[in-house]
Amino acid sequence: MASIDQYLSIFADCRALIDAGSNAAMNARRDEAARLLARQGLPTLRTERYRYCDVEQALSPDYGLNLQRHLPAADPYRTYRCGVPTLATTALRYVVNDSPAPAALSAPALPEGLTVCSLAEAAQRCPDLMERYYHRAAAEGADSLAALNAMLAQDGILVHAAPGTTIADPIQIVQVMAATRPLMANRRLLVVAEAGATLPLLLCDHATSPCATLATHVTEVYAEDGARIDLYRVEETNAAHTRLAGLYARIGASATLRYHDVTLTCGLTRTTADIVLDAPGAHVTADGAVVADGYQKADHNLLIDHRAPECTSDLYYKYVLDDHATGAYAGRVLVRPGAQHTQSEQTNANMCAATTAHAWSQPMLEIYADDVRCNHGSSTGKLDDAALFYMQQRGIPEAEARLLLRHAFINDVLQRIALDPLRERLSYLVEKRFRGHLDACGSCAMCSGKH
């Protein structure tokens, strides 16, 4: 039986149980998602956007589903501590497998104008908001993995900033796979910054399970006119974990999305990002840094859709690949008719530290307007032999010189992170990673205060 058939069968057989563990707003989107999935099936290696990611193979194992919404027996607040030394946060929320944990009783009150709650709570407290935003951006691209998630997901997290709300310290959401047997988790995150709001978020993805686990993520981001969203994501999972994620964003007039994506350790990680610049003056910055070795695979596929004039985009992704690791990057900047005065920059650079590592790079420009300034570039190679020789001539041992060159290569991306404590912490962890001292997440390396 093909992977798609087993999930459609689960949905048909367990629909009542899925609905009972969810809410009306999410349940209302399931039939449409199931129809799309049945009609077009899962992506294959012949699907242009998935040519380097075998989705059928990733979904073929017989994973379990937590349809009855059981939380692990362990208290997630004590067991899965995750934080960045010296970084203050406005709110901290956990998602264990795919179940949002209740806010701690001792959690500080949220600032006025900020809502952070489960989607189940949101459906009760602000149903109009859920109706307006939930699975609207994600449905537009008709992506099969987004449809699979919408068909099966039962809960998630809402982060909402009311008009004019300014949040200085980030909201941190910690997502942990902590299963004792093979498990599939389907997660949702809905982020809405209304007109003039400022909203920083830090998403941490961890996996502690030694058994095979799979997580599908759908994150929808809406930055209304004049809003700014800073979205930071750090992945520290393990070789047994598969992560299939979609980011779907809509950016309004004079609004900004700054997206930073750092992978320290992983198994198979795939991110599809569809970012639409909807109105004049919209801006997006998307940065990515990947360190992979062993048989790890990291795949990023981005679509930046310029639909309005006077918009800007800036993409900057770097990979360091060792052993048999694989990195794939595809970035398509689409400038539609009438989107005059578009400015776009796109750079992808890959360093293969071993001859057995593989990197694929596909930056693309598709332009239907005649008054634009768009550039893109790509490079793939090994360590700079001249720089290595130069450092050795000045007494730096070869192994240390190689480490310093790799670190400088990745640190170039990290310097674009505005949060000083997070930037410094990630730079330190990348160095530990290259020295072989950063294990895949058993307890989060982010929170260790020692340097």
Plain-language structure description:
- By secondary structure, the protein is of the alpha/beta class.
- It has one domain (3-383).
- It has twelve helices and 20 strands.
- The chain has helices at residues 3-20, 24-27, 30-40, 55-59, 76-79, 119-125, 127-133, 137-140, 144-152, 385-393, 398-414, 420-435; strands at 64-65, 91-96, 99-100, 114-118, 157-161, 171-177, 183-193, 198-207, 213-223, 228-236, 241-251, 256-265, 268-277, 283-292, 297-306, 312-321, 326-335, 343-352, 358-367, 373-381.
- The strands form two sheets. Strands 1, 4, 5, 7, 9, 11, 13, 15, 17 and 19 form a ten-stranded mixed beta sheet that branches. Strands 3-2-6-8-10-12-14-16-18-20 form a ten-stranded mixed beta sheet, covered by helices on one side.
- Helix 3 (30-40) runs antiparallel to helix 9 (144-152) and helix 11 runs antiparallel to helix 12 (420-435).
Q: Which SSEs are present, and which pair or pack?
A:
Elements: H1 3-20, H2 24-27, H3 30-40, H4 55-59, E1 64-65, H5 76-79, E2 91-96, E3 99-100, E4 114-118, H6 119-125, H7 127-133, H8 137-140, H9 144-152, E5 157-161, E6 171-177, E7 183-193, E8 198-207, E9 213-223, E10 228-236, E11 241-251, E12 256-265, E13 268-277, E14 283-292, E15 297-306, E16 312-321, E17 326-335, E18 343-352, E19 358-367, E20 373-381, H10 385-393, H11 398-414, H12 420-435
Parallel strand pairs: 1-7, 2-6, 5-7, 6-8, 7-9, 8-10, 9-11, 10-12, 11-13, 12-14, 13-15, 14-16, 15-17, 16-18, 17-19, 18-20
Antiparallel strand pairs: 2-3, 4-5
Helix pairs in contact: 3-9, 6-7, 10-11, 11-12
